[in-house]
Amino acid sequence: MKNRIWLLALLIFAWACSGEKTTESTVPEVVVKPYPKFNADSAYTYVEKQVSFGPRVPGTAGHQATKDWLISKFEGFGWGVQTQDFQAKTYDGLTWDLSNIIASYNPGATKRILLAAHWDTRRIADKDTQDIDQPIDGANDGGSGVGVLLEIARSVSAQELKPDVGIDIILFDGEDDGEPDHASMRNNSQIWWCLGSQYWSKNKHAPNYSAYYGILVDMVGAKGARFFREGYSRKYASGILKKVWDNAAQVGHSAFFINRDAPEITDDHAFVNEYGQIPMIDIIEFSPDLGFSRYHHTHMDNMELIDRRSLQAVGETVLFTVYQE
């Protein structure tokens, strides 16, 4: 009797071990597609070049010179380039000539990923304590996002390793000219921020254009930058948000991409989601505790603020994400 009990126990143990091994063997492995290197030095140089043109305020020589340079860079990478030229009213009654710059890779691909930033800069430093009526350099607020996307475009073109999807990069104009909070007479007849994305979302550059999803990068190059899960991103594109934050952890940048929720921000992605009907997230430095950083809309937003490590974290995460599709 004791021998039978011992044999039964042995059989049960063997079955349990066998079952455990079977369970482990059925867990699918995560297959990571290869992706090219993101060069933070190159992205930094692209930010620096934009700043060298001076503030990119619509209607200025710096704005026009930057536009010409951006178009030439994308064309030099072999991407198809077009501009979407339009006029828009500002909060104080000006009429501005604006241009959204659209660069496309692999235009024949039906599955497309939309990447975006804004390329204009603010004409006033309304959060500063001096030279408030002077435009800012916008090294981070505008320049960093553009620098990251230029490096992604260069990287895709320069290496034999290509993504399996089409990519559209849109640089929105007129994003950063909203009415100051302290204005004595506020004009609330419409939203004065994000003029370029508002226009594009209602007048797309190609008939029936759509994308699988979109990623907006804004203020992504500052020293010590941290990126939280912004409110509209959670509302409209929670699955994409999780994917990108998970990818950031996978490539070693979880210290930058924080798993905490932040409030909604009126940024270009809000209009791409609402009017353009494309799920888009916003990678932006905005803390749930402190809001925007102290450099925001001040003259501190210059090249001294820019850190290659922040550019690397965002650029590599976005590049990795695109290549996994």
From TrEMBL:
Keywords attached to this entry: Acyltransferase, Signal, Transferase
Protein name (database record): Peptidase family M28
Domain named Peptidase M28: residues: 100-320
GO molecular function: glutaminyl-peptide cyclotransferase activity; zinc ion binding
PANTHER family: GLUTAMINYL-PEPTIDE CYCLOTRANSFERASE, GLUTAMINYL-PEPTIDE CYCLOTRANSFERASE-RELATED
Cited SUPFAM superfamilies: Zn-dependent exopeptidases (SSF53187)
Family matches, as Pfam families: Peptidase_M28 (PF04389)
Domain of life: Bacteria
Family matches, as InterPro entries: Peptidase_M28, QC/QCL
Sequence intervals crossing the membrane: none
Annotated signal sequence range: 1-18
Protein's UniProt keywords contain Aminoacyl-tRNA synthetase: no
